[in-house]
């Protein structure tokens, strides 16, 4: 009898259990279904969950707080309380490594950020920082939720504070996949990398309507803050892709190059590209004449593993190249002047672009390889009045502050202040190599002769012959790598064909480098 009763109770219990689990599954299905996929597809965009599928290794995404709903009232909000509150948060794996992500759902209140929505993001950001794993945000939202007033604004404040707290601790990547206004634009700006997808992504602090009302300008969403504008004009976008599939592939590739946090080294990878592969082709790629142009991308492709590199800001400040690549399987950050664009001169944008990249590499223990072929800083009132002094100083500051392994290779021209700034020995590179074609000098021979021997040339019976003679002397005396090598300012003059082998060897030697800066709250870099 007793036994029978127990059986009956157990069966009832199991039935309740099954019913509860069924109820839960239905609820989860409802959450996962989200708002209308058709409406999102009609906008030319993928749904939140399709996006997360593309970001993460198959089936690894785990959502948290899918059941969260807002408790706001007014403006009819009490009658509209969708699950997730317009943002999906969780973690999964990318190439087998833990990554956290949050994704705005445009179908719920335009992906706008209210109190509950913000609290979910705050929690996820705190988790990512504690776990020491990268944070990826999928931005497709209309900024502060208008109906929730100041609580929405405060929600953004909490995100900004966490973005800054996690800066240099875990990699933070923002993917912009829709109209991002106000706070939705500022948070990406505080992160390490901003990806935008052409045609669907826009970023601006104030939209076209406000622009029209305040300034009278007529401008479209795309013209104001589309992907191409931020790729080529403002420099806000680090990478621009043609579609979402390509974008998530690129983000996954970038993540494979980054450490999970600032306590780890970037992940190594096996390569079939021999470390001692000769680069004979470099002699054809780089003209010996200092004023002839060539594409530095071809040089980078020749030196690095398998010709693969990940370029940042490809269309902004094109006179300098910043890229991640692997050398002998290990990740390096490459900074290179680009003679094919404005002769590779350093200007305001190039200095800003390279300074940020040097900082990013230094924060995440990525060694720096600097390829130098620079005629100097860009002269002119425009640059001076816009502050080339303080912007150029940013690059100087970033290099001087960097404690990661630093190797410089001077290919050809290295003139004046620009030579010093491009990670010269005097500002702290660990190893400096020069090709025999190199010319390190205060300035080009023509300019130097005209200044130093101006009076003598003017007084000469044949001024042109005197000028030519002085230029020749200056070249022979000063403009070759041996002058710098004699003085220890380059560590060796190398055969260009050995560049890859020497770089791989140098970086392996410096891998365990430990350099500390003096104790301080933080430096005060030029802004
Ligand atoms: C609440 C919003 C919203 C918002 C849009 N929606 N913006 N709900 N708060 N900020 C809702 C709409 O009512 C609509 O709801 C749905 O989202 C889709 O919006 P549409 O306008 O129909 O879409 P679309 O034509 O594609 O235009 C998208 C948009 C536009 C460009 C984002 O909606 C827009 O300009 N929104 C306002 C953006 C903005 O000014 N945000 C505040 C920024 S200030 P239904 O129910 O009809 O589907 C800010 C300050 C932060 O963020 C602090 C920074 C320092």
TrEMBL record:
InterPro entries documented for this protein: AccD/PCCB, AcCoA_carboxyl_beta, ClpP/crotonase-like_dom_sf, COA_CT_C, COA_CT_N
What are the recorded GO MF terms, alphabetically? propionyl-CoA carboxylase activity
User: What are the annotated GO cellular component locations?
Assistant: acetyl-CoA carboxylase complex
CoA carboxyltransferase C-terminal domain spans which residues? 274-523
**Pfam families this protein is in?**
Carboxyl_trans
Annotated CoA carboxyltransferase N-terminal domain ranges read: 14-270
Protein name (Swiss-Prot/TrEMBL): Acyl-CoA carboxylase subunit beta
């Amino acid at each position: 009898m007793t036994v029978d009763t127990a059986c009956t109770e157990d069966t009832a219990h199991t039935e309740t259990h099954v019913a509860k689990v069924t109820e839960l599954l239905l609820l989860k299905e409802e959450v996962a279904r989200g708002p209308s996929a058709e409406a999102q597809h009609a906008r030319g965009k993928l749904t939140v969950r399709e996006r997360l599928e593309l970001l993460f290794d198959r089936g690894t995404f785990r959502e948290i707080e899918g059941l969260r709903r807002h408790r706001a009232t007014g403006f009819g909000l009490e009658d509209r309380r969708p699950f997730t509150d317009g943002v999906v948060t969780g973690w999964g794996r990318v190439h087998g490594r833990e990554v956290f992500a949050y994704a705005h759902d445009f179908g719920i209140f335009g992906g706008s950020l209210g109190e509950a929505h913000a609290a979910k993001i705050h929690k996820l950001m705190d988790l990512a920082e504690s776990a020491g794993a990268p944070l990826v945000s999928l931005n497709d939202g209309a900024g502060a939720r208008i109906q929730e007033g100041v609580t929405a604004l405060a929600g953004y404040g909490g995100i900004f504070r966490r973005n800054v707290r996690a800066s240099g601790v875990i990699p933070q990547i923002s993917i912009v996949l829709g109209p991002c206004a106000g706070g939705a634009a500022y948070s990406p700006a505080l992160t390490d990398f901003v990806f935008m997808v052409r045609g669907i992504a826009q970023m601006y602090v104030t939209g076209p309507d406000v622009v029209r009302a305040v300034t009278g300008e007529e401008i479209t969403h795309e013209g104001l803050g589309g992907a191409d504008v931020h790729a080529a004009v403002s420099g806000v976008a680090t990478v621009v892709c043609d579609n979402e599939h390509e974008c998530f592939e690129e983000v996954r590739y970038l993540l494979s190059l980054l450490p999970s946090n600032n306590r780890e080294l970037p992940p190594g990878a096996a390569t079939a590209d021999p470390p001692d592969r000769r680069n004979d082709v470099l002699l054809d790629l780089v003209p010996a004449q200092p004023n002839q142009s060539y594409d530095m991308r071809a040089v980078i492709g020749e030196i690095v593993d398998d010709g693969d590199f990940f370029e940042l800001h490809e269309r902004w400040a094109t006179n300098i190249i910043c890229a991640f690549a692997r050398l002998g399987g290990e990740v390096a950050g490459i900074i290179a002047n680009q003679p094919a664009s404005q002769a590779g001169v350093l200007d305001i944008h190039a200095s800003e672009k390279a300074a940020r990249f040097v900082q990013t590499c230094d924060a995440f223990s990525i060694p720096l390889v600097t390829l130098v072929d620079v005629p100097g800083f860009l002269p002119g009132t425009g640059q001076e009045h816009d502050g080339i002094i303080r912007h150029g100083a940013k690059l100087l500051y970033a290099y001087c502050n960097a404690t990661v392994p630093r190797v410089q290779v001077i290919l050809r021209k290295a003139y004046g202040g620009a030579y010093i700034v491009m990670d010269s020995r005097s500002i702290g590179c660990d190893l400096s190599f020069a090709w025999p074609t190199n010319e390190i000098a205060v300035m080009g021979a023509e300019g130097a002769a005209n200044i130093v021997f101006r009076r003598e040339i003017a007084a000469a019976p044949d001024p042109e012959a005197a000028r030519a003679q002085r230029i020749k002397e200056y070249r022979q005396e000063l403009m070759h790598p041996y002058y710098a090598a004699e003085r220890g300012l380059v560590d060796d003059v190398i055969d260009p064909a050995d560049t890859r082998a020497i770089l791989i060897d140098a970086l392996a030697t410096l891998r365990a480098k430990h350099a500390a800066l003096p104790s301080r709250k933080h430096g005060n870099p030029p802004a």
